[in-house]
Amino acid sequence: MAGSPLLDDLRAALGDEAVLTDPDLLRLHRRDEADLCAAGTPLVVVRPRDTAQVVAVVRAAARHGVPVVPQGARTGLAGAANAVDGAVVVSTVAMTAIREIDPVARIAVVQPGVVNATLARAVREQGLYYPPDPGSWESSTIGGNVSTNAGGMCCVKYGVTTEYVLGLEVVLASGEVLRTGRRTAKGVAGYDLTRLFVGAEGTLGVITEVTVALRPAPEESLTMVAVFGSTGGAGTAVAGIAARGLTPSLLELLDRTHLRAIEAYRPMGLRTDAQALLLAAADTGPRAADDLARIAEVCAAAGAHEVYAATDAVEAAALLQARRLAHPAMEKFAVETYPDGNGGLIIDDVAVPRGALATLLDGVARIAAECGVPIGVVGHAGDGNLHPNIVVDRADPASLERGRRAFDEIIRLGLELGGTCTGEHGVGLLKRDWLAREIGPVGVRVHQAIKAALDPAGLFNPGKVF
Q1: 323-350, pLDDT tens digit by residue?
Q2: Cβ contacts of residue 81 below 8 Å, gap of 6+?
């Protein structure tokens, strides 16, 4: 390996310290956090620091016909960042500069390796707000968020990542650098190439710079919890909140499985006897208290047997932290469910119209019973986006088969209800077949034509999306 012409080219362009071939590091960069997805072992991991170095990497890989797999923090849940055998993994973790924060234009310009929470805190110091907040915001990067079009808990009011991406700098398969978008508040010139790359999961180019829109920082939010005797009742409340014209800044659902898993993971006095819990917040200044009171009324009418407001900011932050702990808590729960630590998760990510949420929740419970697998449900209820977590025994082929069947049945139900196979995690490896069913043969051909035009050799993140 030491004498590989490709490695020689990479070291000449980036220096020895940015070209990693240690077997332990290669294993570390094989995959993201999607369980049970195939992953290969890369030939090399490179850590460029600027666009020029990314250009050099892409051109070197093209000369040698080697695949390129972009990676951020590897917090994805669909296998989009998984390596393929012999690939060059382009890790953006060293591209961490916040190049500009402009409070007049309300924009920030960042490299892709900037961590979401780091950007959020930096702009908050100037009275500004970057809303997208995936559950992994303390570790996931802006480049990864853009590549997967990540969502988060504030999406119900503020929308997903694509709403905030004004422009991109992208290295194409040819090694050319493309700049898309604008810095202005308005702009409609040409095709919207920016949105083409948002959510493309690294299949069309390597993102090297992102210009994001910012908002004025909201006032401190008020938070409440509604406790339900059924998940379907919680879904009915969500539909009622939307029907009343209310727009909470957060509306999250946790079922009993998640409540118990979180309480076992980090005890904080959660109501583990509840079948479902809705966590709601409002940040509309003087109207926040009135909005929250109206949300509470809807929850009570939908059958909530207890509704209570956080007494202060500390309690509100604790409730929010409980929601952010859902994924690691369920990972621990899965490991402990089966002998010898063989438990794993197949994490679904399906979104339906808000009016269909109760039907989806009841359907997930039915599918869990029919397939004979434990399924915990958590999600961004306010925008109809749920994450059923299917618990399987990795060492038992029958358990894996039941889990995959449940996964497919949940997506099938979601599509039948007018929904989509992924609300925010992306397609990656997990949902390629379901994407094809959702968009149809014409949609697939258009995707393939775009891919062929921008990456004719098919070297960028092969095997992902379709």
Answers
A1: 999 999 999 999 999 988 899 999 999 9
A2: 31, 32, 69, 70, 71, 72, 74, 144, 202, 428
Task: Classify residue 43 by its DSSP letter.
Answer: S
Query: DSSP assignment of 372-392, as one string?
Result: T--EEEEEEGGGTEEEEEEEE
Q: Which of helix, strand or coil describes residue 325? A: coil
pLDDT of residue 318: 87
Which pair of structure tokens corresponds to residue 441?
């043969």
Strand order in the sheet with 98-102: 98-102, 107-110, 206-213, 165-171, 177-181
Query: Please, are residues 398 and 445 in contact by the beta-carbon 8 Å criterion?
Result: no
Helix axes 357-371, 397-416, angle to 10 degrees: 160
Q: What is the mean pLDDT of residues 245-270?
A: 95
The owner of tokens 């808990």 is 153
413 or 314: whose pLDDT is higher?
413
H or E stretch covering 287:
none
Distance between CA atoms of 188 and 406, rounded to whole angstroms? 43
221: left (phi over 0), alpha (psi -120 to 50) or beta: beta
pTM over 0.85: yes
> Could you tell me the two tokens for 166?
């004004």
Q: Which structure tokens are listed for 119?
A: 């950007």
- Give the pLDDT mean for 18-45: 96
Q: Tokens 């900011």 sit at which residue? A: 313
Phi, psi of 90, rounded to the nearest 5 degrees: -100, 100
If you ran DSSP here, which 8-state letter would residue 219 be given? P
